[in-house]
Amino acid sequence: MTIDVLEVKRRLQLLLNDQSLVEEYLRQFGPSAGNQNAKSSYNLRREDEDPIYEIKLTCPVCSKKGIISYELKSKSQTIVLNKFLVPIYTGRPGFKTVDYTLLAPIVCPQCLFASPDKRDFARISESDQIKSQIPDSVITKLQESTDKRKNLLKPETDPMTCFKRPRSAAAAIDGYNLSLARAKVEAWFNLPYAQFKMGAYCLRIAKILKDGGHDNMEILNNAIKFFEEAFRLSNCPLEEFEMQSVYLLVALNLKIGDQKKASSYLNVFNNLQSQRLLEMEEDPSLNCNTINKWRDKARYLWEDRDDPELFKDE
Question: Do 15 and 30 share a domain, yes or no?
């Protein structure tokens, strides 16, 4: 009987839902093996790939080399944001699901300098050595505060091992608390985005606590304080992040039950839009797109503010 190769490919595409897997299947079994037994055999031989790979970095504070940064392979995960803009990861076909939020903080085990951003560390590229993006004045201050960072860990915690994979929720929280310590020094020097970063770190800690069945209200209140400071100080030069701060203040205040305060921050969007419309009369290149985008997201939350399930996952 003549084999309809196109029909076999069509059926395999429906079964495997991935063109690269279809091609790999045909290479291994040929079109004549397009049946359930062959597919079962293929599935037994196929194992989802680990989406994490490692790169080595150098600490800008103590110069320790070989610090492991766990990086996420491109297109390995479907990423959606929860209502507090914390990423939720689901493995794409061929890849395991990994909660990268647990692995994101990079920690120097020697001086406990930490950050989820590898650009804060020094690293070697193919042609050059790339310095940390953190200013020298901040590095000097961080060198002076190493003992303070060490006091953030429990006495029984071994930083040489606890931040390796598999990383526990407790170790991940330690990593974010150490990142907060770094960002607080950046805030002392009035570095852009420092307040926003601290708020974002708190939201990641809150998500980890929530996933573990623990109360996260205290850390959410801390996040509110940082985002309020970010907005008050205009700490985010890019409008996108400034509008995210206002949106998060609406969302967080709704979460803790302060609808009056949430409403006041929702009105901030209207005030900013009115101001922008006046500015556009002088400068037609300006627009309200970013303001409107985050205002609309905040409005959706406001409209559902009395839904007891609104923040059940946050």
Answer: yes
Whether residue 109 lies inside any domain: the answer is yes
Q: Which residues lie closer than 8 Å to 66 by C-beta, 6 or more apart? A: 56, 58
Closest CA to 97 of 78, 110, 69: 78
* Residue-range definition of the domain harbouring residue 41: 5-45
Q: Is residue 172 part of a domain?
A: yes
Q: Is residue 125 part of a domain?
A: yes
Same domain, 65 and 22: no
One-letter-per-residue 3-state SS of 205-253: HHHHHHHCCCCCHHHHHHHHHHHHHHHHCCCCCCHHHHHHHHHHHHHHH
The secondary structure element, H or E, covering residue 55 is strand 52-57
Choose among 182, 247, 202, 180: nearest CA to 86.
Answer: 202
Among residues 190, 221, 248, the one where a domain terminates is 190
- Are 129 and 158 in the same domain? yes
Q: What is the pLDDT of residues 154-211, one digit of tens each?
A: 999 999 999 999 999 999 999 999 999 999 999 999 999 999 999 999 999 999 999 9
Instruction: Please compute Rg for the chain using Cα positions.
Output: 24
Contact by Cβ (8 Å): 143, 185: no
Q: Which two tokens stand for residue 69?
A: 């940064």
- Taking a C-beta distance cutoff of 8 angstroms, is the pair 15, 93 a contact? no
Number of domains forming the structure of the chain? 2
| Residues 6+ positions from 86 with CB-CB distance below 8 Å | 101, 203, 204, 206, 207, 314
Dihedral sign for Cα atoms in the order 224, 228, 230, 236 = positive
pTM of the predicted protein model: 0.84
Whether 30 maps to a domain, the answer reads yes
